[in-house]
Write a structure and sequence with these properties.
Blueprint (H helix, E strand, L loop, with lengths): L14 H5 L1 E6 L6 E2 L2 E2 L6 E6 L10 E3 L5 E3 L3 H8 L2 H11 L7 E2 H8 L5 H19 L4 E4 L3 E4 L5 E2 H10 L3 H7 L14 H31 L3 H14 L4 H13 L3 H19 L5 H11 L6
Parallel strand pairs: 5-10
Antiparallel strand pairs: 1-4, 2-3, 5-6, 7-9, 8-9
Helix pairs in contact: 3-5, 4-5, 6-7, 6-8, 7-8, 8-9, 9-10, 10-11, 10-12, 11-12
Length: 301
């Protein structure tokens, strides 16, 4: 198994997504909770306002959702950094540290260089930090004393960080559109089991955040009697977590309530195919029963 990124890099978003106006939701008592916090905290209102997905400031941008890509630098600088998978992993760890805070050097050394003793691992970490600063600027990686490191968010924009920030600020439409796929798909560091565990946890957290934002949008749009957009977000939710039957049933119920029986049956068929292809299983009896009731026009209980 080769080190680093292994799959082709897809585009971030179709150009039309960058140009159109998206719904921004500010609301209270949203049904989904992420890491113990409500998604938004103000009185529920809807506003249409233009959102441009991507960096809000000039400078380099690190894309980790659905791909691993660095933009805003020369081709030579980009290649120098992206070919050093430990440096990419270091930037991801710093970017996704809780609340953008500092991370202990020993923690980073253990994650990324577990095969080395502490002295040599810290030396390897210093070299990685030096390369990151050389390419991104001295101010990109911030030191606190000799033991802690942090990433300067204004210097390096990151889509995964923006997604979490957008959820915290109630910009749920932006958060959903920023989620272009799993965190760092195909990225692998040999003999770094603890890093692999960290990466899987972060992948799950970001996916759950996007799913929660998507479902909250669907519910509030349904309450606002916007059938078209509520349907869109309900369908999209099932594609964010493709084998989760609980989410599938929620979406099917909503589409049935909205009078879109064909849409409910369509997402059932899509999910059934994915379950068979990816897990080798059929939908559960509960899901099949719901599909049958919808197909026969019977009320759901």
């Amino acid at each position: 198994m080769t080190q680093g990124y292994r799959h082709p890099v897809p585009p971030l978003l179709p150009p039309a997504i960058h140009q159109r106006s998206l719904f921004v939701l500010f609301g209270e008592a949203l049904p989904s909770v992420i890491e113990g916090r409500r998604i938004a905290s103000r009185s529920p209102t809807y506003r249409l306002m233009p959102i441009t997905l991507g960096p809000t400031n000039a400078g380099p941008a690190l894309y980790l959702l659905g791909r691993v890509e660095l933009k805003g630098l020369s081709e030579d600088s980009t290649n120098r950094l992206l070919t050093q998978s430990k440096v990419v992993a270091l930037l991801a760890c710093l970017a996704l540290s809780p609340s953008g805070g500092f991370t202990r050097r020993d923690r980073l050394a253990g994650l990324l260089w577990p095969e080395l003793d502490q002295a040599h691992a810290r030396t390897a970490l210093r070299k990685a930090v030096h390369l990151a600063r050389t390419i991104l600027g001295d101010e990109a990686v911030v030191s606190r004393g000799d033991e802690d490191l942090s990433l300067a968010a204004p210097v390096l924009w990151c889509d995964a960080v923006d997604l979490r920030s957008s959820i915290d600020r109630g910009l749920l439409g932006r958060a959903v559109d920023l989620y272009q796929g799993p965190l760092m798909p195909g990225f692998f560091l040999p003999e770094c089991a603890e890093f692999d565990n960290w990466l899987e946890d972060e992948r799950a957290s970001l996916r759950e955040g996007a799913v929660a934002a998507c479902w909250a949008m669907a519910q509030h749009l349904e309450s606002a009697h916007d059938r078209t957009l509520a349907t869109k977000y309900a369908k999209q939710m099932t594609r964010l977590d493709k084998t989760n039957e609980r989410l599938l049933r929620r979406a099917m119920q909503m589409l049935d309530r909205l009078g879109d029986r064909a849409g409910a049956l369509s997402i059932y068929d899509e999910s059934a195919r994915r379950l068979k292809k990816e897990l080798g299983i059929d939908p559960s009896k509960e899901t099949v029963a719901m599909m049958t009731a919808i197909r026969e026009g019977r009320p759901l209980t």
